[in-house]
Amino acid sequence: MTRSTMILVAAASAAVLQSQSNTPSPTSGQPAAVRNLNDYYRAFSSLDVQAILPYFHEPCMIIGPQGVFAASNRSVVATAFAPAMNALKARGFGRSELSIREIKTLSPTSILATGVAVRYKVDGSVLERVGVTYVLQKTNLRWEIAVLITHDANEGELGK
Fold this sequence. Notes:
Number of domains: 1
Strand order of the largest sheet: 2-1-6-5-4-3
Radius of gyration: 21 Å
Strand content: 35-45%
CATH class: Alpha Beta
Structural class: alpha+beta
Largest sheet: 6 strands, mixed
Oligomer: single chain
Low-confidence stretches: 1-26
């Protein structure tokens, strides 16, 4: 092997090792995605529709008992959430917390999370429990909600 060939092989090996070390591990995005979901829940608890919009991907999809709602942009998301937030306020909503049951990395840019949104009244008692499943998409800025599915709180476990 000539000296230039050895240098070329060494450089190629270093490049492969470098690219492998930069490849995200299957769970590397999960802590950031969970943080972002928790931040979303804090914003949601304000019942200010404008506060939740930055957490949604453009476009996104919302699936629930009422059907499938495709939102091409965040202003369309606002139209979907405003009535629901007003109804929660009328029912004495105080805050909401997410209890994640399961999270799965689908790719370096997609994560599936399922859990229960526990909604509390202003007095601290439980208002309701709603099953939620999210598909989060990694953007240049953060993990954003690309798909939100609401379902029965006892359904939606990934392994079932």
